[in-house]
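If you are new to this repository, start here. Below is one unmodified record pulled from the training split, so you can see the exact layout before writing a loader.
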Amino acid sequence: MAISRAQLLKELLPGLNALFGLEYARYGEEHKEIYETESSDRSFEEETKLAGFAAAPLKSEGAAIAYDNAQEAFTARYNHVTIALGFSLTEEAVEDNLYDSLSARYTKALARSMANTKQVRAANVLNNGFNAAITGGDGVSLFNASHPLVSGGVNSNTQAVATDLNETALENAVIQIAAWTDERGLLIASKPRKLVIPPALQFVATRLLDTELRVATADNDINALRTNGAIPEGYTVNHFLTDGDAYFLTTDVPNGMKHFERTPLTTSMDGDFDTGNVRYKARERYSFGWSDPLGMWGSAGA
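And here is the target side for that same chain:
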């Protein structure tokens, strides 16, 4: 439906001092703190995880050498979605000199809407990361205690018992990440990089990561998390996380959280011959997801 003069009556009358409601500041591209962005020129993208070899066995004197087989572990698939929104102005609104002011004002509103949708979709990968119905290439949820391995073992990138953000929880997460293995059970040198939190946890995170001494204790102990540089990139607040208790750690494991950009944000306009209305639209196409679940660690909080 086109925006008509009846919907913008005040803008046609003299004496109007200000128009407001579209000037709010907006949060930036917070997905960039979590995802690695790559371009795509296909309708979907797939990434396959390979399994290497098991630990080399002891060869007895005179015995034959052992041979191992390489294989694929699993494949992650990214199905791009198209996000689009538009608006139109009636021919009469254009004639009554609303064209210039409205097109500038509402194209900004259009960009704001598109940006908000993108951040919501990016954050929803984490928001739904504990949902058993939403699975990745290995057949389980993003944050799971039983990511299956070719060797028959499992990796866990979450807590056995979910607890709120505190010093012990972060220390245990660092230790857990250091114990991850590859598909054949060989240790990998994985480390945390950054703490990702909702706004409700920003003050807790500051006390845990930025103080020189331990918090909530009378002892004169050093803050081991800070001294060891256990979380070297500190923390970042994601305002689109929906659970005020949940918190996450990005890791240095490659090919983890991925954002594929199929078509960047584009805007266009045209006139409709039959009605004389002027139409505007914004469109982009992308996907958010994960390939290797070890690229992220998460806790749902208590």
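Two things worth knowing about this chain: Residues 76 and 98 are 49 Å apart (CA to CA). Helices lie at 91-127, 167-178, 202-210, 224-227.
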